[in-house]
Each structure stands twice: as C-alpha cells, then as structure tokens.
Amino acid sequence: MEKEFYELVIEGPYILIKGFITGLLIGSKNMGTVIYNKEKSIKRESFSELLKEWIGVSEHLTHVIISSDIYEMVTREIETSFDDINMKVISSKKIRKACFEFKYEAFAERYGIELKNFFKDLPSGVSLLPDYKPVEEIHKEAKGIELYAPEHDYKVSAEGTVEGPLPEIIGLYEQAKQRDLIKLKEITLHFE
Hints:
Largest sheet: 9 strands, antiparallel
Shape: elongated
CATH class of the largest domain: Alpha Beta
Radius of gyration: 21 Å
Oligomer: single chain
CATH topology of the largest domain: Alpha-Beta Plaits
C-alpha cells in the first residue's frame, strides 16, 4: 500500500519547529518521513500566504509534510506543548498527489535524446499529462553553423507536467534539477 502524507502548516519559527520535530522523533525512536516544503521547492498553497510573506508576517508559518505513521504523535505533541513553546497547527491536509511543470530546449541531438528518455523512463506511479509533446526540428542546411547562429541544425523543445505520489515526484524533481537544460516550476500538492 502507498504511504500517506499530510501537510501541516504550523505557526512558529522554522528552526524551532524543525528542532522540535527532530527531537520528538529521536526521543520516540519513531523515524517517520518529515519533509520541509522550503527545503524541497514545494509551493505554498494560498494567495493569502504569499501576501503575508510580502508584508513580512509569514516568517512564522512553517509548512511540513509528515507521513501518516507519525501524524498523530506530531500533532498531539505540538498541541500539548503550546504553552511551553508557542507552536500550533494552523491547518492539516491529507495529500492526494503532487505534480510539477517543466520545460526544456536543446540544440544537440544527443541532449534531445537524453531529455526525451528522462521523461519516458518515469518512476512507478508517475505519469506525464497529455500536455507533453516534444517538438523536434532538423535543418540540415544549417549544419556546421556556430552556437550563436540564428538557426541550428537540430532543436528539440517541450513543456509538460508530471504527476504522481509525493515521494516519487520529489525524487524525480531532484533528478531533474541536476540537468541544466530542464527548467522547473515548484512542486504543487493536491489535497483530498
């Protein structure tokens, strides 16, 4: 069975929350999965949060993704520790899936093959949405022209969206970040 995850929005400074949850897990010897949105390029949910960030209020809202096996323990301990450390859970949502948008462009056939193969060999449960349609152009008359020429003998470009289970999407996103030719948007979470 696929592991379930929840996104918690916790009021309190990021470093305090991270230390609290880490200490809680070490002390309980229960090492579930904990992912901090800001460390993994995961988009925050609402326009109101962006507005708060612009005016300087949101520095005390921390988004944390936790696995279902530690959900009850973490939320309970945060709630019972409020008087001591001033943290509280603002919202809790079960994650259904995750996705991210990407685009790429390359001017050498070998890079085009690599890029197309990267998005062909996807992890289990991850799929490309129908908006992905790589476009290849071959101009034999331009062969041998230098890099900054107005036309290249080969060009491939595409944009698309991949979606699937959260852990697989984060793993694929991290792999895609290592490739200079792929431009990425933040990971978006979809909730139940």
